[in-house]
Amino acid sequence: MSAASPEPAVVVDGLVMRYGEKTAVDGLSLTVDRASVTAVLGPNGAGKTTTLETCEGYRRPQQGVVRVLGLDPVRDRKQLLPRIGVMLQGGGAWSGVRAMEMLRHVARLHAHPLDVDLLAERVGLGDCGRTPYRRLSGGQQQRLGLALALVGRPEIVFVDEPTAGMDPAARRTTWELLEELRGDGVTVVLTTHYMDEAERLADRIHIIDHGRLIASGTPLELTRGGAVATIRLVVTRPFPPRAPESLRRALGEQTVVTQLDEVSLLVTGPADASTLAKVSRWCEESDVLPESLTLGQRTLEDVFLKLTGRELSA
Amino acid sequence: MTTPPTGSAAGGTGTFAPRPGAAPLHRQVLAQAGMEARLLLRNGEQLLLAVVIPVIVLVGGVQAGDRVGLDFDHPVVDVLTPGVLALAVLSTAFTSLAIATGFERRYGVIKRLGSSPLPRSGLLLGKGLALLLVELLQTVVLSAVGLALGWDPAAGVLGALLAVVLGTAAFAALGLFLAGWLRAEATLAAANLVYLLLMAGGAVVLPASAYGWFGDLVGWLPSGALGGAMRTALIDGATAWRDLAVLLGWAVAGTALTARTFTWE
């Protein structure tokens, strides 16, 4: 068990990755603290997986610098590999290999592996140990992938969309496991496009979009302003021109109105009993018919919408 | 250090406390070889290729040779058994390896292992060892069938061993080239097709002399060189240096080709 160290577990500085014409990562910089859970949050195609694969040494940075545990993932691959655990987004096993056989095999490549039976039980592979990989469900394959990442007792694990395809119970088990890892001093870096996952698990969230870092902070910092109410207004047909400005005048200067798309607006401002009534009245005057009016606290989803102008899961 | 261990933080039980490290390389290689050999033998089609077809060729060839009076200078079983052993090497080192590697790339197995402590050299060593292991089992089965049919081998142990090792190297390099070049399904089709073509016309099972003028050409193929080297070793008890040189040439060429083109995903 290593003592807490001031040096970050991961440093990404000015990373640029292009595939042909497409720029997947565009000058990304971020750090990951040791023994923390860090979520890299962003929609599909935001550059999350590319960034992770650069940290794992699969890809050489085209520009910028990547350091993991102080090492260059490409040049110092041999020293680094035993110290990291990687959960790929999918696949990674022979189609005919049995689940436990695969786990035992990867365990044998390490010097001090975890007890595979204990690990299998913890990730919930108990019933399917003798099942060939190709016959595992998507969720079971994910659990095996997580076990494969952990079996070598790594200092840092990179998990790419760890709960995609899992049922709610398995998701909760996985979250608890990742929290336990942090408690044991393991650094966890996960990518996700689930808000609740990031909000529940992460000590720090990096939101990326189009290969750029657009916000960083603790879940609380990102959603700060608990007294701030948000109202999401969805109407049946497109808003008239300049609707946000007109609504803002109706509600007062402290209010922020963001148009999300043709038929929805996000209102952020001081919580006030009359606000909802004012929005209703404005709808009537502007001749728009509300389909839904949702009142709530600012969530990560709203933060993301505000920052990127689009839905995370879209 | 005065800082308390982070494992004492909330939620930690010590179960997952980091203790990283790679197993010694020889243990990793043995684990990989054992795994790959098991998977090769578990697969029904591969077993057909590795054992069933060579046994059918051997038994059928000896029966037919006795009936139609195939005209060799030696008993039919003495000519065919070394050829069938060469066929077994071809099936495992080329066809089985190419197909298995093609699907490993497709399924991300090689990528997955790429983030484990197993280095690429270890992966290749493991694969090579697995091939030799499967070939050993094939040799035991096929030799037993040959002996039951009255095979009387000459003691060209060195020549046969060199032929198997160099033949494995040559065909494995070519198999990896194929797997790195084509998609998995195309590799499957091509590797089987090449196997059938070489079995019929590649002077593996039958001596190159059985092919008339074409035999001179076939002797330069890895299949003809491997078959020739095996027959020289196990019929005459000698070492066929020219055939071994041809195999070495193919191994070097195949390795160079594979090193230039192979990608792990």
Task: List strands and helices in order, with pairings.
The complex is a heterodimer of chains A (314) and B (265).
Chain A: E1 10-19, E2 22-32, E3 37-41, H1 48-55, E4 63-68, H2 77-80, E5 84-87, H3 99-108, H4 116-123, H5 138-150, E6 156-160, H6 168-183, E7 187-192, H7 195-201, E8 204-209, E9 212-217, H8 219-222, E10 228-235, H9 243-251, E11 256-261, E12 264-270, H10 273-286, E13 290-297, H11 300-308
Parallel strand pairs in A: 3-7, 3-8, 5-6, 6-7
Antiparallel strand pairs in A: 1-2, 1-4, 8-9, 10-12, 10-13, 11-12
Helix pairs in contact in A: 3-5, 9-10
Chain B: H1 25-42, H2 44-68, H3 76-106, H4 109-114, H5 120-148, H6 157-181, H7 184-201, H8 214-218, H9 222-236, H10 241-261
Helix pairs in contact in B: 1-5, 2-3, 2-5, 3-5, 3-6, 3-7, 3-9, 6-7, 6-9, 6-10, 9-10
Short overview:
With 314 residues, chain A is of the alpha/beta class.
Describe the model.
The complex is a heterodimer of chains A (about 325) and B (about 260). Chain A is α/β, with parallel strands linked by helices and about 325 residues long. Chain A has 2 domains: about 210 residues, P-loop containing nucleotide triphosphate hydrolases (Rossmann fold); about 70 residues, Alpha-L RNA-binding motif (Alpha-Beta Plaits, 2-Layer Sandwich), CATH 3.30.70.1560. In chain A, about 30% of the residues lie in helices and about 30% in strands. In chain A, the strands form 3 sheets. Chain A has a 6-stranded mixed β-sheet with strand order 5-6-7-3-8-9, sandwiched between helices. A 4-stranded antiparallel β-sheet of chain A has the order 11-12-10-13, with helices on both faces. In chain A, a hairpin with a 2-residue loop joins strand 8 and strand 9. Chain A is elongated. Chain B is elongated and about 80 Å long. The N terminus of chain B is likely disordered. Chain B has one domain. With about 260 residues, chain B is mainly α. Chain B contains 10 helices and no strands. Chains A and B meet through helix 3 and helix 6 of A and helix 1 and helix 4 of B.
